[in-house]
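ok new one. same drill as before - structure tokens go in, u give me an amino acid for every spot. 125 of them this time. try not to just spam alanines like last time pls lmao
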């Protein structure tokens, strides 16, 4: 029993709270006016709007939205510490300590892209 408790305690200290509760990826939703435009991410992913992409939380993402007859639009989404990430980091104070905080910062679990969802309005050419 003591050994199991020790193993569980060690496992909790070696993981970050946000890494466990939020993961290192998030769903980025992109929509446009007009819809059915091509949304291409700097990660190489391409879908028609409205679209949902799974992206790494800590990466800066460039989104280019195009549609024939409209001017292309490019938006750069940087990641920042989000509300859930801040709460996960606060949990590290109680559970994971400095190791957990380092893991959350290193994996990017404490970050999120804003705005999400991203709404892009295209202008006619």
């Amino acid at each position: 029993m003591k050994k199991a408790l020790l193993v569980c305690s060690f496992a909790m200290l070696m993981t970050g709270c946000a890494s466990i509760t939020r993961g290192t990826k998030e769903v980025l939703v992109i929509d446009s006016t007009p819809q059915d435009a091509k949304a291409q991410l700097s990660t190489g992913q391409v879908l028609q709007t409205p679209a949902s992409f799974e992206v790494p939380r800590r990466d800066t993402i460039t989104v280019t939205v195009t549609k024939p007859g409209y001017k292309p639009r490019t938006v750069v989404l940087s990641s920042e510490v989000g509300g859930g990430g801040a709460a996960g980091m606060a949990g590290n104070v109680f559970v994971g300590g400095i190791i957990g905080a380092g893991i959350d910062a290193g994996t990017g679990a404490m970050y999120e892209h804003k705005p999400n969802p991203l709404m892009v309005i295209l202008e006619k050419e």
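Residues 2-121 form one domain. and btw The beta strands are 25-33, 38-41, 46-48, 51-56, 61-66, 73-77, 79-81, 111-113, 118-121.
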